[in-house]
Each structure stands twice: as structure tokens, then as C-alpha cells.
User: Fold this.
Amino acid sequence: DKGNHRHFMLKEIYEQPTVVGQTLSSYIDPLNLRIVLQDLCFDPKTISRVTLIACGTSYYAAMVAKYWIEHYAHIPVDVDIASEFRYRAPVLSQGGLAVFISQSGETADTLAALRHCKQAGQTVAAIVNVPESTMAREADMVFPIHAGPEIGVASTKAFTCQLSVLAALAIGFGVLRKTIDRSLEATLVQALSEVPSRMAEVLHHDEKLRDIAADLANARDVLYLGRGTDYPIALEGALKLKEISYIHAEGYAAGELKHGPIALIDQAVPIVVIAPMGPLFEKTVSNMEEAIARGGKVILMSCKDGLKNHSDMAMASIELPQVHPMATPLLYALPVQLLAYHTAVHKGTDVDQPRNLAKSVTVE
Ligand code: F6R
Assistant:
């Protein structure tokens, strides 16, 4: 049932404040500002390496988690696309933890990689939405994301719920490894617990995003730029746009712009810049200025302070709440989802059933 929404995708975008709240409630204790993890079948103090494996949007969640786990838990992390991992000769560390991220829990390549890692003696964990899925059954340990059924083929709420679980794991591992002290744990848990209400604020920009999308619908190519944990959000924004509006889009790490893609830039290529306030803000802005100097038309997503001196140079801007850097990928996922959604609606494509795509890819 789509409720009063025109598409499942829109309904699922709007569900995010609620479902992310539900997900977080099983991984954090908001009163005492602590992470609560179920009994783990491995000891985060002794794991030598974390290998994160997934496909598509779930892979972008893994990319975000690499930054978090390295930063907060000081564990080396590898991220891999399942279809690449399984046909390489990956060298796995003894005492490694392999984590498989999948909404469906059935994606063939991810499942094959899971079986490979299990056979190779890794501890295997699955972060899934479907609790009775094959991956959930075969993993040593399951971390459910509690997003509820996702009907739209393009993943939305599963992504932010995956990020919520991964954030809790990164903090939880850090606490157990003592790379995070009690006060940092409290700060981070507080930041996560505010995400649902901040997401609800972000959804108020729906109409403005719809207006921007009317322009975007005329583009042939769109670039998305971000740094750090917002680089995977640029990739996710580009994937969403490709999938449902069929407009060619590319996500780039903002610092890579001058190593090639800057050659593409002219007035006809809109550039979505994801630039929350934080340690990387100035760097991203300087990449944005390089693009604007070459005629690039920028759609800038930042917070009030970030937009203060920079919104004039952008063609359009979206003001998001100012939050802790750990919360930015969770929040900035929403405007890129909505931008893709409205662009597709504007073009008249089949949003919930994009051509050539299936919800669950059970062939290799
Ligand atoms: C993108 C999308 C796909 C899936 C991918 C993995 O919107 O939905 O890229 O993310 O097929 O699917 P799961 O997470 O079920 O393994």
C-alpha cells in the first residue's frame, strides 16, 4: 500500500525518519547515550581486519563504513564489490571479520562471496533487511536493519538503515577496543539519536528539490561530487539518478575532479556538490570553485554556515541541518534520493519498476 504517496519509492523515502529511528532503537540506548550490541560471536579487540562486501547501493553503505571503522575503531578495512571479490584471489587475514551487506540477503554474488569467506575461515556477519534470507541463515552472526519491506526497486530506506547499523557497529567496536572513550561514545550516540528528527527537517525541502529536478530533467549528464563519507553519497546520488531517470550521472571524489572529469564540465552539465560543514568543507568548496570557473552549474547541498559565503556562486542550493560529521551521510542521502525521484517523475519514467532492473539479483 502506497498510502497517500504516488510511488512506493516516495513512500519509502518518507518513511526514513521512522524506520531509522526503529533501527537505532535496537542498537543504541538513548538515555544513557551508549551503544548496545547483542552478544557478539567474535571479539572486536582481536579482529585483525574487517572485509566489507556488497553490491550496488549496499556497497556504497560499505564504503561509508570503511571511513567510520578506520576512524573510530582503528581496524584496517577492505571494501569490495562482491562480483570482483569472488573472482579474484583475495588474501584474507587470519582472525578477520567478513561483513556482507544486503537488503534482500539473496544477491547471488554477495552470497557466493559469503560462502567463500566462510570456507576460508573468516568470521562471517550479515547485515540484512530480510531476516529469513539465505545470507541471514548462513552467516555466523546477523545484524538486522529493521527497514521493513522495501518495494521500490531503487533502494532508499534500506540504505539509511544499513548506515545506521554500520555506524553503531563502528562506535561499538571502538568502545570495546578503547579507541573511543565514554565521552566520545556519548557524543556520537547523541548525534545518531538526533538523526530521525533531522531527517524529518530535510524532507521539508521536497518542494525545492522538485523545482531543481525540473531543470535537471533536461540534462544529458550530471556530476555528483563529495569527499570523505560524503563521497559514497555522491556515488549513490548518481546511481539513483541513472536507475530511475535514465540520465547519465557520475559520482566522483571531489579531489579527483582535476584528474580527468573536469574536462566534461560546461554549462550543460549540472554538478551536485555535497559539502556539509566539517573538516573537509573548504577542500570541497575549492573543487566546486574550479568547476564554476569552467562554467559549471552547481547545485550545492550544505548547512547554513556552509552556504553563507558560497550559495551565491551556485545555481541552486539546499540548506540541510548542521550535524555531527558522523550523521552527514545519513542526512545527505535524502536530498539525493528526492532529486532523483522528482527528476524521474518529471521525465515520466516508471519510478518503482525501472527498465531492465530487478529488486533482487539472484543470478550472477
Ligand atoms: C540500487 C539498488 C541495487 C541494490 C543491489 C544490492 O538502488 O537497489 O544496486 O542495492 O542490487 O542488492 P541487495 O542489497 O539486496 O544485496
